[in-house]
Amino acid sequence: MSTDKTIDRQKALELLRQMLRIRRFEEKTVELYSLGKIRGFLHLYIGEEAVAVGALQALTPEDAIVATYREHGHALVRGTPAGSLMAELYGKANGCARGRGGSMHFFDAARRFYGGLAIVGGGLPIAVGLALADKLQDKARVTACFFGDGAVAEGEFHESLNLAALWKLPVLFLCENNLYAMGTALARHQSQTDIARKAQAYDLPGEAVDGMDVLAVEAATKRATEVVRGGGGPYLLEYRTYRFRAHSMYDAERYRTKEEVEQWKQRDPIVIFEGLLREWKCLTSDDLARMEAAIAAEIADAIAFAEAGPWEPVEDLTKDVYTEAINDQLSALSLSEQKIRKLRDEG
Amino acid sequence: MMISYRDALNQAMREEMRRDDRVFLIGEEVGHYQGAFKVSKGFVEEFGPQRVLDTPITEAGFTGLAIGAAMAGLHPIVELMTFNFGILALDQIVNNAAKIRYMSGGQLSVPIVIRGPGSAAHQLGAQHSQSLEAWFCHVPGLKVMAPATPYDAKGLLKSAIRDPNPIIFIEAQLLYGTKGEVGEGDYTIPIGKAEVKRQGQDVTIVAYSKMLLVALEAAEDLAREGIDVEIVDPRTLKPLDVEAVVASVKKTGRLVIVEEGWRFAGLGAQIADSVYERAFDYLDGPIVRVTGADVPMPYTRSLEDAAIPDRVRVMAAVRQILGKGQRPIPHHK
To answer: What is the pLDDT of residue A49?
Structure first.
């Protein structure tokens, strides 16, 4: 754990708050799943919160994000309202993708959040393309691309690193190594388990970071982002982290021992950071209680927003398979659609 | 002005790249090599390497990259050296390009053209001779075009580049050198509009891409036998101009569909279904399909010839549907 005591108190509390928001939001989704309010696949980020929270500190609102099917946390930290995300999990029209996407396909174009792409490895070329667009348009933005250790076995990972390095594109390749590609342990799917070293093959910088330490994640990502933003080309960071829960909602977890899970839970990024803040006299029990209460209220509001949201009318089943005309943006939307979008943005 | 199909494509892309600086070309050998089939001749000289991007041999990589650039508002044209190699990019085309609009609830568009040669040329073997248009037509979110003439190729490609959707634009390798009249200046051809390429009374043939030329030849020979064939070229395969096909069938009462692709689950099956649904009562008999054989393309000439529809088989199909001759050679059943 980092020992930098010069950290700004407000900033530190915000890091804790964001990690707690993700944790509490997802714990609530488990309850809602049991109630049948949320269906389909639901991949939880619990245990890995320090990664999204730390990494996103390095980005500006102009930067782009591409994430995977385990992206609730990234969207929350990015600023997509919790209500709009909860409504999406419900499949409601006031969800961030009008209920078309679900848990694995969060989108928020206004915040440059480009999914929610759920084919392992498939998001990497997309991220490189977003970065290419910036380079071609002389925009000093970066694209942060999150993917798991499983994606490293896909050809698209290698093709993307090569292209981004070859053309010096501003991409942060952010590998969330939680040690399992679904149920296959890293050592059973990689000949070289030191993922950061794979960067060498494509001549870009690669670095492994403790993914359970939000300050370490933030510091490393900021260093990497500085290089990328300065025109230094892409950067690979490997965050070593761990998922505390099943791969998706149902998973007998025969591929790992309870002892191993318990051992990693000793390194819970929230518990450890909380302890550190107390040690540094940055956090009192009252602070924490107030924080938890505010988060609980935010999540309660999010659920109310989702419950109250409308279902997309079945007549709209085929809407948006294609982009209609070139000028079919907001002006052409019906009043009800405008209302839905407004609701979503407020959620 | 008579120009080649290749030059028509070159003009279309050149004019659109001059018109809209969001448009750029990306693919293998499109720049310094001037295109594997010389479609992008002179591009890197005019537009520079920033807008004519030579890629490594990395189809999933550069196709996905172009899709990402399109999501950011650019209008990439991806050149696949051939559509056979596009199979490596199918994840990006099917899982991302075709679905992003819908999955994002209408927030994002993917204005991209993915183009290159398809179908058989001369003895290129099983991995370089495929007609895969039916695969792409199957996927909601994609539009698919396969123009046969230089005029259509230019006008449709310009429309494709201006369209806000992902478009699969298939050029037949053997068409690149064919010539035709292309008007001066700027014109576009509407997406999803068929054209009657030959007026006739007795039987309708639907044929597209290289098979249009085969059908036109067959029609000339059939005319000498007193058979008056009408030929409808859909030009755009998806969305398909069913109205135009139905209108012709209502006139002739008979339909032959010619496609180079494999028979089973081929595009002709879909066209037949659409016509049965809308114009069954106007048909004087069953629709007849002339298709490629359900085999990997053989190398040896005699077998390759047997696997691809030709003038003789199209003529036999027309005679059959008119009850005027033997059944078509049944190798493809």
So the answer is: 98
